[in-house]
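Thread: "does anyone have the structure for this chain?"

Original post by V.I.:
We have the sequence but no experimental structure in hand. Need at least a predicted one for the grant figures.
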Amino acid sequence: MSTAALTDGPARERRSPLLDELAAIAVVWHRELLRFARNRLRMVTSLVQPLLFLFILGSGLSSMLPASGHIDFRTFMFPGIIAMTVFFTALTSAMSIVWDREFGFMREMLVAPVHRGAIVLGKCAGGATVATLQGVVILALAGVVHVPYSGGLLLTLVGEMVLAAVSLTALGLLLASRMTQVESFMAVVNFVMLPMFFLSGAIFPPKGLPGWLSVLVRFDPLTYAVDPIRRAVFAHVQGSPAIKQALSAGVRWGDWTLPIRIELGLIAAIGILMLVLAIHEFGRTE
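Reply from O.Q.:
Generated one for you, tokens below.
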């Protein structure tokens, strides 16, 4: 895509600076969607790992959880797999900024008379959109793991996925802001991604963990994305109230169980902070 779309010559002079920034964001966002839509291999392979976790690991561990109505271990893992899909896609989508820098396209974008933050916002919007769409694909499998297709539940989950996707894409952009090689970025992402995923409670309940592990779980930002999704799911599935409470007890700070709105507020705050830092670092490195 030509950078001429970011600067329209005489037509640009007739628009306000705000419209120019919004147009730049829209162009970069659209480019990220085209990049993803044209890479069918990426579309398929990014879904393989979540499906392996859900249907192979989840089925293998189902015997650890006594049957209770329609709840089995795959039901418990399902919210974590949704978060995993959004997380992995959002974080790796930031690789495009390293790719553009390494192959010279970023320099063409930077000659456009718009704030560099608009480029970062467009990248974030594109990555978050792609991550949410991937999460929706996994969400379509809800019935297979005994999660009802409730309109209210589905809308709640999509809203939570959007919020998580924006924040996690912003984290990926911050990691990518100083990277000049794709290989270096992927090494850093793999170093960050797996610890965050395993500490988030995606595949085990955060209740009853050893003290040191509980501390790490509370400091993991992904924890506050997984828990609201799980609590929304378990509010709609059928099963023993005792088991539902044990598996979706929420994140506790001492004796206080965080309300969902506080968890979502933390995710939003983390996302804003990551985005501000990414814009700042992006401006310094180019």
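V.I.: this helps a lot. The mean pLDDT is 84.
O.Q.: and Residues 3-285 form one domain.
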